[in-house]
Amino acid sequence: MKLVLFIIIIINILLFLFIKNKYIQTIKYGLPILLIIFNILLFFFVQRYIQTIKYGLPIKKETFFNLVDKLNIPKFYNYYNPSPFVYNNKVYSTHRVHYGSYYSVTRTIREIIAEKKFPSYIAITTQDNNVINVKIPFVMNISTFKKYTRNKKYKFIGYEDARPFIIKDNLYLLVNTFVNSTKYCQHCLIKIDSKKLDNNPSEITYDDLILINPSFNERCHQKNWMPLIKDDKLYLFYGLNPLEIYECNIDNGAVKLVHKESYNSVPKNLRGGSHVLEYYSKMFSKNVYVCIVHTRRKYYYTHSFVIIDYPFKILALSGEFIIKDDYIRFIEYSKLIHIVNIQFVSGLLIDKDKMIVYYGEKDCISNKFEIDIDVMEKSLVKII
User: Fold this and answer.
1) Domain identity same for 325 and 377
2) Orientation angle between helical segments 31-55 and 2-22, nearest 10 degrees
3) Are 241 and 372 in the same domain?
4) Number of separate domains in the chain
5) What's the rounded Cα separation, in Å, for the pair 245 and 235?
6) Which DSSP symbol is given to 312?
7) What span, in angstroms and rounded, lies between the C-alpha atoms of 297 and 190?
8) pLDDT above 90 (res 101)
9) Range of the domain at 45
10) pLDDT at res. 175
């Protein structure tokens, strides 16, 4: 604000010096009104320009190819919420594939589609733009699901928003699905022998399905837990404030609390999003962990970078941002007047000094963007 006012004062001084001799007699009586109008317009223009400079960080955005064209599924299916993993030095990504919610079909038709039980499921894409269908059985009871759908308790059938990772040569997909025995959405681990990816198959089957059984908050839907792999152990980030972390047994799905801590200077409405990954931070001069979380607003999401130390402690947090074509824009929620579409960050990859962020858009397409880690760290504010 101080910078905006300073620029406006300088422009007014220059303007006054320019017009005082030539035009002062001509517009003597209308000059105050003209200056008021001019300064109002100038204030909004300069403020918007300064915000773009101060809160915008450059990115390189890329859209995935059309998965539906390579899958034997109806054309009204969408693919979104991608998430990456690396196997044999090759980058793969999972995608949620689900019936259309954004294309030009009426709500009635979409409801008919849902009633006919077109499920949400997971597909994997390769660096060579091949698509692998993941065959996983469904663990919910359809009749119970329909009852809960009518009561608007839960809307989806199948598996949602995988976060993939590899432990001891096995690929695991951390997904959530509706489970009949609990009548709530619950996380589970889909275990797949990663060697099945070697020959670029068009389809792979699962080896094991492990339901994660938390002994807390059993009567609510569980979504968007963030995985961290350290020393071949799986840690699940349940929440950010309080910072609540569980260690998960990948053989039986049992979890135990390993850390819980509250913060006065961290918002309480942060929800999970990406993986939690290790990288070397120049800001802290050591290895730390980074993840991207989301804040749910009325009709859209904003996102924030979070830096976490080990043993677990939040070190820094960025402001809320939205993703544009060639930059991410940090802005206060009160000034976030219009969002073009829904964006949801669901995966993260570290490649040397760059960070690749995977996200879904409009619930119908998979995107990603690349940002320099040094640039990302410019947005961070240390937590005291």
Assistant:
1) yes
2) 140
3) yes
4) 2
5) 7
6) T
7) 31
8) no
9) 2-54
10) 93
